[in-house]
UniProtKB/TrEMBL annotation:
The gene is lepA. GO terms for molecular function: GTP binding; GTPase activity; ribosome binding; translation elongation factor activity. This is Elongation factor 4. Transmembrane segments: none annotated. It comes from the Bacteria. Belongs to the GTP-binding elongation factor family. LepA subfamily. Belongs to the TRAFAC class translation factor GTPase superfamily. Classic translation factor GTPase family. LepA subfamily. Residues 4-186 form the Tr-type G domain. The keyword GTP-binding applies. HAMAP family: LepA. It catalyses: GTP + H2O = GDP + phosphate + H(+).
């Protein structure tokens, strides 16, 4: 079967540049959906996506388009998430395409994520169609955006298509460009089935649904298929395409983008990036690019009320079914009780999971300070991966610790360069490249430790630049660093919920901040309590809480025994909510306050 009339493409853009609006307009123009079916931003199906205004999951859709040459083409559009946490999904979706529409808001110009997403598309050798969107806005400056295309992205300005996704301007030009410029898929002539799984979801009624791009051969119901990563075989129950609703087809052929339902039990059996083939006539090699998604950021999530543990576990299980990138395993902490160690793709992903636990499952949770993954070489040559400070070996057993680094693109108005550079220095980063974007803006490329941008980097960059800065990052390997484990001792007892892995040069400052906070939240005891931040047995910061004798019955002179007893009862109850660390009792709220504040 010929793939001559098929075009597979994605839309990539900086957040808010109009990707979802353009997708909707393309569906409307090709009459894939009627205007009546059309709701605003149809492709962003999840509630949270709508609320946050960002696309999280990729949604493919098949369209028929009768071009000016009179021929009807099959167009497959793969929507991609805009945020860097999900760049793995962007890369997978792009691998299923031959072309990409690069959208640029003509009022804003090229932004940090425009660059990052364009790099991903160029790595896959895709044909790029630049679209200058929002030309209806008075602030739109098409000429300036064209100049930026040439200067920054090295894309010829005459290739750009001016458009307004909102008002439906330029839509036909975009579709014509897709047909004319994006090459049709190349069919492998051995006819063996090769399909790449670029997403999989779990549906309560239909089980696991794998989103696939067929590169060669065909998929049909009742065919036996095999997945490369697991070597497991399945029988195809149904296959079809997205219109955007799932629509059954008799077969999927080379070049098609669609879905396959086989008898799979859980979403992680159909791993994203895996290759699917026929089990009786398999292809010999998997398609390139199979890679497990690795969570980059870890944090403990604990139920505030310990009786919610089982409910929390069930809720996390449900979330994981549709989000293979989220991982969790049980862990316990003497301070927080039983909970889970969770892995995320990045901070936004972490925020989304926490928010969904609260909203969709009504869970009141507390999460510990986020940590990255460290690579550790022991003095005996053994290699370790450490995502939890408690598992870091003793300092004398460590030969080297390496931390994950990110290449960060920061686009800011020129007058803020100085401020941003000091922020980057403070965060142990290095400026590697500066480029002038236009007469008012520059783009700084920096290398920074991931751990340093986790918490407040983006917020501080935004407030420093009064909201005019934008940033994006990509992972760029590991680098050796002087990392140490810092313990907090309260009355000489280490409290592991507060242990962290920090850079040696920052241990004092961080230790002082934490000791100070703890001093405010730990109640006075009957004796002096020392709070000490300790690195390798050496105290780097300390605070003390003075002693107090809290005699709750002092005011009850005379013989009011029942009142006295009541007060003592009350005091006892209060104690139950405390956690005992050696001689000191710390109330649960103290942990929540310290950990939540960070
Ligand atoms: N004036 C104007 N506004 C537009 C146009 N296209 C999109 N918008 C608006 O820009 C905002 C962002 O558009 P979206 O389509 O959600 O952007 P997106 O790129 O899909 O965003 P993410 O899904 O977060 O990556 C919305 O408020 C749109 O209504 C346009 O051509 N003109």
């Amino acid at each position: 079967m010929s793939t001559e009339l098929t075009r597979n493409f994605s839309i990539i853009a900086h957040i808010d540049h109009g990707k979802t609006t353009l997708s909707d307009r393309l569906l409307e123009y090709t009459q894939t959906i009627t205007e009546r079916q059309q709701q605003d931003q149809l492709l962003d199906a999840m509630d949270l996506e709508r609320e946050k205004g960002i696309t999280i999951k990729s949604h493919p859709v098949a369209m028929k388009y009768k071009a000016k040459d009179g021929i009807t083409y099959s167009l497959n559009l793969l929507d991609t998430p805009g945020h860097v946490d999900f760049s793995y999904e962007v890369a997978r979706s792009l691998a299923a395409c031959e072309g990409a529409i690069l959208m640029i808001d003509a009022a804003q110009g090229v932004e940090a994520q425009t660059m990052a997403n364009l790099h991903l598309a160029m790595e896959q050798n895709l044909t790029i169609i630049p679209v200058l969107n929002k030309i209806d806005l008075p602030a739109a400056d098409v000429e300036k955006s064209k100049q930026q295309l040439e200067d920054i992205l090295a894309i010829p300005a005459e290739e750009a298509i001016p458009a307004s996704a909102k008002n439906g301007i330029g839509i036909e030009d975009i579709l014509e460009a897709v047909v004319a410029r994006v090459p049709p898929p190349v069919d492998n002539d051995d006819n063996l089935l090769r399909a790449s799984v670029f997403d999989s979801i779990y549906d309560a009624f239909r089980g696991v649904i794998s989103y696939v791009r067929v590169f060669s051969g065909t998929i049909k119901p009742r065919q036996r298929i095999k997945l490369f990563a697991t070597d497991k075989t399945y029988e195809v129950k149904e296959c079809g395409v997205f219109t955007p609703k799932m629509t059954k087809r008799d077969e999927l052929i080379a070049g098609d983008v669609g879905y396959v339902i086989a008898n799979m039990k859980s979403a992680d059996e159909a791993k994203i990036g895996d290759t699917l083939t026929d089990s009786t006539h398999p292809c010999l090699e998997a398609l390139p690019g199979y890679k497990e998604i690795q969570p980059m950021v870890f944090s403990g999530i604990y139920p505030v009320d310990s009786s919610d543990y089982e409910n929390l576990k069930t809720a996390m299980g449900k979330l994981q079914i549709n989000d293979a990138a989220f991982t969790f395993m049980s862990e316990s902490s003497s301070a927080l009780g039983f909970g889970f160690r969770c892995g995320f793709l990045g901070l936004l992903h972490m925020e989304i999971i926490q928010e969904r636990l609260r909203r969709e499952f009504n869970m009141d949770v507390i999460s510990t300070y986020p940590s990255v993954i460290y690579e550790v070489t022991r003095t005996n040559g053994e290699e370790l991966i450490v995502d939890n400070p408690s598992f870091l070996p003793e300092a004398q057993e460590i030969e080297e610790i390496r931390e994950p680094m990110v290449r960060t693109f920061i686009m800011v108005p020129s007058e803020y360069i100085g401020d941003i550079m000091s922020l980057v220095m403070e965060k142990r980063g290095e400026l590697t490249h500066t480029e002038t974007i236009d007469d008012t803006r520059v783009m700084l490329t920096c290398e920074l430790p991931l751990a340093e941008i986790l918490v407040d980097f983006n917020d501080r960059m935004k407030s420093m630049t009064r909201g005019y800065g934008s940033m994006d990052y990509e992972h760029c390997g590991y680098r050796a660093a002087k990392m140490v484990k810092m313990d907090m001792l309260i009355a000489q007892e280490p409290v592991e919920a507060f242990s962290t892995i920090v850079h040696r040069d920052k241990a004092e400052t961080y230790g002082r901040q934490l000791a100070n906070k703890l001093k405010d939240v730990i109640p006075q005891q009957l004796f002096v309590v020392a709070i000490q931040a300790c690195v390798g047995g050496k105290i780097v910061a300390a605070e003390r809480i003075s002693a107090m004798r809290k005699n709750v019955t002092a005011k009850c002179y005379g013989g009011d025994i029942s009142r006295k007893r009541k007060l003592l009862e009350k005091q006892k109850k209060g104690k139950e909510k405390m956690k005992q660390f050696g001689k000191v009792s710390i109330p649960q709220e103290a942990f929540i306050k310290v950990l939540k504040n960070d």
